[in-house]
Amino acid sequence: MPAPIRLRELIRTIRTARTQAEEREMIQKECAAIRSSFREEDNTYRCRNVAKLLYMHMLGYPAHFGQLECLKLIASQKFTDKRIGYLGAMLLLDERQDVHLLMTNCIKNDLNHSTQFVQGLALCTLGCMGSSEMCRDLAGEVEKLLKTSNSYLRKKAALCAVHVIRKVPELMEMFLPATKNLLNEKNHGVLHTSVVLLTEMCERSPDMLAHFRKNEKLVPQLVRILKNLIMSGYSPEHDVSGISDPFLQVRILRLLRILGRNDDDSSEAMNDILAQVATNTETSKNVGNAILYETVLTIMDIKSESGLRVLAINILGRFLLNNDKNIRYVALTSLLKTVQTDHNAVQRHRSTIVDCLKDLDVSIKRRAMELSFALVNGNNIRGMMKELLYFLDSCEPEFKADCASGIFLAAEKYAPSKRWHIDTIMRVLTTAGSYVRDDAVPNLIQLITNSVEIHAYTVQRLYKAILGDYSQQPLVQVAAWCIGEYGDLLVSGQCEEEEPIQVTEDEVLDILESVLISNMSTSVTRGYALTAIMKLSTRFTCTVNRIKKVVSIYGSSIDVELQQRAVEYNALFKKYDHMRSALLERMPVMEKVTTNGPTEIVQTNGETEPAPLETKPPPSGPQPTSQANDLLDLLGGNDITPVIPTAPASKPTSAGGELLDLLGDLNLTGTPAAAPTPASVPQISQPPFLLDGLSSQPLFNDITSGIPSITAYSKNGLKIEFTFERSNTNPSVTVITIQASNSTELDMTDFVFQAAVPKTFQLQLLSPSSSIVPAFNTGTITQVIKVLNPQKQQLRMRIKLTYNHKGSAMQDLAEVNNFPPQSWQ
């Protein structure tokens, strides 16, 4: 049989292939020749054939049929055969294949070989692919080689020991005696691998970490080695870009970081050397930057001095000026991690961080944006918002949603004045209105409503903002609501903050009608506009007939929501015109919901608009009969009574009775408006306590407290607490205030709380304060429950919770039986 071609010739031949098919054909032909040679037990060319097979394996072709040939080469007495055999074993074998166990005895023999290079091959192979069984069998030989005086073998044995520890952690103590003298070695290769071994042991075992801190005094040894590296002169064999062995320096810094974490004594011992490394390392080359970065991480992770931490942050600040994008990104990421603990030190680099917002790299932009929001406080809010608003104008679409949310949160927390707050949010809505969160519109409307002194200024700004541009729907919704509320101020020109504009009633209606017919307007926006036009019928004097005409036109709209509004408003004009001014009066100042005690009642004027500030009533309130029955089926049991709707059972006898039917039981006595009940739902008889006397006294003025609170639910980061109060005027009434908090890292949205009680009780749920439970326990949702318990029986309740979290709809049921006796006796 002719001699097979050499590896070099095979490589040359394969490289001449012009197509993938031609290369595959060459490989298949050569593999067939190699198989034939293996079958004939050709010992002469086995080494050459395995070498060629490894090259084909590197090209991605199957080479598993050469595994046993590798074992035969390992068993050979020739070094050249062993070298290719061990290389093949590392590439073609792993611990998932049983054949690798056949080489255990060969490796053991080679570990005790008289030639250091054969021992080195065996150590490399064991450290690369040794299974847990092999490591247990051969750990003793590795430990012996770790104590030898041969530095070539010691460095390989140290790395092999790392692999053994990872596979069989309980063998760690076997290598402990051998580690005592490793750091006294002058050979940098041994030092490097020793530090890797010590790092692995410290990371995997707290006991080892404590042993090296106290008994071995490891920190002073590492400090000495690091100091020698810094102070030593030029060494050709270790020098990289003018720095002595940067790889060893980085490894030592990482080990120091582990030793100094949460340990005062170790941290104190390494403070000086860390300061020397930070000040003496050359930064013109990337090698020096790598060492400085590791130094910064070590300083931030141990209990270092404040001056040293400032030095570390200043190093990161210099990184921000580097031309290398990777270094800038690393600096921003590190500063973002430290900004909470060293806020003032990071603030010094604020201008440099803001400049990174203009970087072309999107990753750097995002990190700079996140860090910029973390730096915002009451002192720099104006300057930072100016920069972030400029960034919002020019940034890519994928940044706008996060940037807008960040600006809203920062403005709400640190706004120097209400006018500035409103101007900032309007600027965001003008720039990125289509990217803002759903709660931006109701939040801004509430802010505007409560800023009584600048109503004229706000409505004028909003009017000018939407002239001819309806692309930003949230802005148009806020503008329509404000024009409907404060249109009289707009026409009268009473603005004092800036030069008033001259606007006629017809021009205002032209804008709102344009919103109604615009193709860019959504159904919700049209609802805002139609309701605003209706409100203006009580604020304008010359255009009432025009308003009637517009409203009547939309009585036949294909949009059912718009049609229903128009029909109701038409009825208001035709049948109940004498009540129109009372129904459409201006919204009062909206009080924020308190976090303790009963919820403050937010008064409304009963408008049937898209309710931008009204939270959605929970499904357990007045719902269609079928939906209510479904809930009761879900809660289970036949002794459950449904939640009593907040609408009055018997309507007041007045001329407006039919109108109340039409508009959903609007309360015209100045008391809180009751939730509408669909006409199709049969009314449930209601006890007098629910709404009795609300027009003559505040809702909760007869409450006495002193009852201990309970935790009704705590699961998946959501916690529901009940606080109790009893009525003096009606002892059978218990007022329960629920508080929902969220300890996870993301908000819980669309939160709905439902409850049911046995038939001997009657229960009424008031509207919740919000539908979003903020993350990190930064806020709560409150909701009031009133329970009538005339028979003084022990209170029991079943609750149902629904919400969205991390993109998933969540639902859970629970039973509450641990009510304190004071709440029902």
From TrEMBL:
Please give the residue ranges the record annotates as the region Disordered: 595-634
Q: Where is the composition biased (Polar residues)?
A: 595-607
Q: How does it sit in the membrane?
A: Peripheral membrane protein
**Which PROSITE patterns is this protein grouped with?**
GAE (PS50180)
Specify the superkingdom. Answer: Eukaryota
What's the family? Belongs to the adaptor complexes large subunit family.
Protein name in the entry: AP-1 complex subunit gamma
Which InterPro entries does UniProt cross-reference here? Adaptor_Complx_Large_Subunit, AP1_complex_gsu, ARM-like, ARM-type_fold, Clathrin/coatomer_adapt-like_N, Clathrin_a/b/g-adaptin_app_Ig, Clathrin_app_Ig-like_sf, GAE_dom
